Amino acid sequence: MDKKMLTIDLNSQVMIDKAEKDGVETMYDRKLAMKAQCGFGLQGNCCRICGMGPCRITPKTPRGLCGADEHTIVGRNFARMVAGGTAAHSDHARDLAHTMALSSRDGNYKIREEGKLIELAKEWDVATEGRDIYDIAHEVAEIGLMEFGKPYGVSRLLKNAPKQRQQVWKDYEIEPRAIDREIATIMHSTHIGCTSDLDSLIHMSLRTSMADGWAGSMIGTRFSDILFGTPIPRQTEANLGVLEQTKVNIVLHGHEPTLSEMIVLASEDPELVALAKEMGAEGINLAGMCCTGNEVTMRHGVRIAGDFHQQELAIITGAVEAVIVDVQCIFPALAKVADCYHTKFITTSPKAKITGSTYIEFKEEEALAIAKEIVKEAVLNFKNRDQEKVLIPELKSSATVGYSVDAIIPQLDRVVNSHIDPTGTVKPLVDCLKSGVLRGAAGVVGCNNAKGVSNEAHVTIMKELIKNDIIVVTTGCGAQAAAKFGLMDKDAAKKYAGKGLATVCELVDIPPVLHMGSCVDISRILDLVAACAKNLDMDMSDIPVVGIAPEWMSEKAVAIGCYVVASGIDTYLGIMPPITGSSRAVEILTEGLKDKVGASFTVNENCHELAATIISDIEKKRVHFEKLV
Ligand code: CUV
Ligand code: SF4
Predict the structure, then answer these.
(1) Number of the ligand 1 atom closest to the C-alpha atom of 294
(2) CA distance linking residue 189 with residue 205, whole number of Å
(3) Ligand 2 mean position to 53 CA, how many Å?
(4) Are both 244 and 332 inside the same structural domain?
(5) Ligand 2 centre from 210 Cα, in Å?
(6) ipTM value > 0.85
């Protein structure tokens, strides 16, 4: 098979050829080498939870040594994926809460968004009158940190949901308690000899995922906005073509804005810019990758180098002086690829030390100084670039990004600088949904998965949806696919959108696909759907909105899928999760949950069929919706 057929991105195809020529192995080589994947693993019915295993379920051995059947084994594995994903997102949020606790008027981390802090303080019953903004910030940070380990009570963010949805959570008993507690409970309950009941394992998975969506991720986004500013629309470009021949190229990859914000500052430092010129470069060019890329493009318009599947390919351009990473979604392979070029692969987090990388530990207390040290490493490395090994592919697309809820609402309202009123100002959006000018809204999110062709499902599905007047909001690597393929260009509405959506886009001057941020920022999508539902006095499950993860791969994505379903939003996956070993698990997740939370999963690995199903389901949902309005 031709490796290049494994991606639809033309730049990636050029780089796959170059890798071959340079003798560098990439994920695409490893994918072809790994011919058959383990069938038990694919179905989720291999158990390695205790030392008597691994136990694999077959018709001849229908139970593990302890007697666990396929339903128990699949359920436990699934629950552990949710726990892993919730842990990753929430630990990211915890770091931001610690950063807010450190914030000070003359320190590296300041309060940028006082209004948002005060709004949150009021929500959390923190006194604001006559107090120093930093005292308020520190108290809010402390309360945020308590959400991780408080001994009693449930997430304090649940009350942002419509009351109907809160009741569903109460009745089904999935209101999450402290975030760490939910994760620990899953690890405990899936230990050998605890929960074997599948319904209970799935119930637990949903409750834990709620600690991600309606606690960890929400804290992550709110605190990031308070510290670094709420995104507003801005212009940028995306794809490997944003790397520059004549500048020091730094790729920022990973997740937490605490590091990347400081790198952005450091890269503008006059001394470092002067040093770059001394080295013979014209300046310093930052380019983002994965969710860190999303964070810095949303807040600064930093251009996007690429997505999860392009991390090796960026280095293969031979033009990258440093890849700077913190946590999550970083291929360990980057160390080896970087070795083939002059690129420095710089890890910074004690939570993600990678063999073969250069480790410079990032500490929030000395943030800017360390960021400058890291950028300096990159700048000094420019002289080592081997021009003969450089090939920067040409393509890049322009995109308008930065659509936080706070930006979308006034834009749709055509009122600039309006303050968000969670019940009032979504009216224009709600009216478009009611009248059917917009048939519905879809959140298309998530990763790239080598089980399919990189970017194909994202781009196919998004194009189909907008053609059918379904407005798309996106985060994560889905957002990067949209940006790379021109779907975030304001001209995209004319080219690809149906008549209704195109009219709305032209009227309010937005692209048909809106970039809402990183994966953690899916909390923004929850806020938006909740605001629409409240405006209509409906449950979130009553309105024609869907969640889609066409190319998901991470445990975080599994947690996200679960909390989106738990929020009453039907969720469509383009990759089958490892659950097919249990017919009952499939039945509960794709059907049974409907009765409990008003939504469920649909899976189809054919993206054309999946798009058609989504469109027809949205139309079905409209019938119900139109009766209610
Ligand atoms: Ni957090 S989780 S590959 S970077 S979206 Fe991209 Fe997004 Fe998946 Fe990772
Ligand atoms: Fe086997 Fe049971 Fe141990 Fe799993 S927990 S490895 S099924 S004995």
Answers:
(1) 7
(2) 11
(3) 5
(4) yes
(5) 28
(6) yes
